[in-house]
Write a structure and sequence with these properties.
By secondary structure, this protein is an alpha/beta fold. The chain has 13 helices and 10 strands.
């Protein structure tokens, strides 16, 4: 286990029961599924990346997901991913956790990538369900068990059936919760009852993090401990405050903040993620407009909707 986790001093990482030692790992609050800044020719822009990391640290983001879907993981090489993780760990310097996305639809490849992500210094691994090949629930159980066995840091399961064509059911999550390194599930179905079902089945052994900004607040009210957020890329301070209010039981304040973000949650998925959110960050002057194929620039007819939603969320967008 990474020394920062073992010491319990990483902000945003609360070392309540890590099961191998009678204890479970817990990541709380607003975690940003960070975009990967790119130049127009598709090269990773490390200077913009470092600026983004500091931008979030100044605005209350609880931690970073590096190389997730929003970070264009399908087009990042393992070398690029690990370099991004190393750079994030260096820049963050223990202030918040850095979690590496390392899921693929090949178990052996996922194991190898997970080991590389751990060696690069990530303090957690986010592992998506195998996409396209549609494994059974038993296949999912065995896949995640093998991957978690290979990890040296806490593992977060990631269920996003709308993108993967594969649904990790609550009963399988409950089986996986017995593994000492599996600490949470990122549940991106937006189904509040499913969150309640998972928590009921797992009996405190595993946390739920929302993977859907539009329903994140409802999931926190239902027992989730935070969100892995796309919206936080553009509105990190608001997302951090919303999560903090909800986790503190201040329902009225959390609802008011979420209402201001409602249109932005929707607009950032008007086209496939991360196309709209990278456009939003470009309009904020934080990154260049680069994407890698098969992702292409936001269509002109959608630009005004994204900008209008940004303004309604209180973000300053120049004309």
């Amino acid at each position: 286990m990474h020394e920062l986790l073992a010491s319990g001093i990483v902000p945003g990482y609360h070392r309540a029961r890590f099961r191998g030692e009678g204890m479970t790992a817990q990541f709380r609050g607003s975690y940003v599924a960070l975009v990967t800044p790119m130049a127009l020719d598709g090269r990773v822009d490390t200077k913009a990346y470092e600026r983004l990391l500091e931008y979030h640290l100044e605005r209350g983001t609880a931690g970073f997901i590096i190389g997730g879907t929003t970070g264009e993981s399908p087009t990042l090489t393992p070398t690029e991913l690990c370099e991004l993780i190393r750079l994030a760990v260096h820049t963050v310097d223990g202030r918040v956790p850095v979690i590496g996305g390392c899921g693929t639809n090949n178990t052996a490849t996922t194991v190898a990538l997970t080991q590389q992500v751990c060696e690069a210094g990530a303090q957690g691994c986010l592992v998506v369900t195998p996409y396209y090949n549609k494994p059974t629930q038993e296949g999912l159980y065995q896949h995640f068990t093998v991957v978690a066995d290979a990890a040296t840091v806490p593992v977060i399961l990631y269920n996003v059936p709308s993108r993967t064509g594969c649904d990790l059911l609550p009963e399988t999550v409950a089986r996986l919760a017995e593994h000492p390194r599996i600490c949470a599930v990122k549940e991106a179905t937006g189904d509040v009852q499913r969150t309640r079902d998972i928590l009921s089945r797992c009996g405190g052994q595993l946390d739920v993090l929302s993977g859907d900004d539009s329903s994140a607040l409802e999931l926190i009210f239902a027992g989730a401990v935070g969100v892995i957020s796309v919206t936080a890329n553009a509105a990190p301070e608001a997302m951090a405050k919303m999560c903090a209010a909800a986790l503190d039981g201040d329902r009225e304040r959390a609802l008011a903040i979420d209402e201001d973000l409602r249109d932005l949650h929707q607009a950032l998925f008007i086209e496939a993620n991360p196309i709209p959110v990278k456009y939003a960050l470009y309009r904020l002057g934080l990154i260049d407009a680069g994407l890698r194929l098969p992702m292409t620039a936001l269509s002109s007819e959608c630009e005004s909707r994204v900008v209008a939603a940004m303004r309604r969320a209180g973000l300053e967008v120049s004309d």
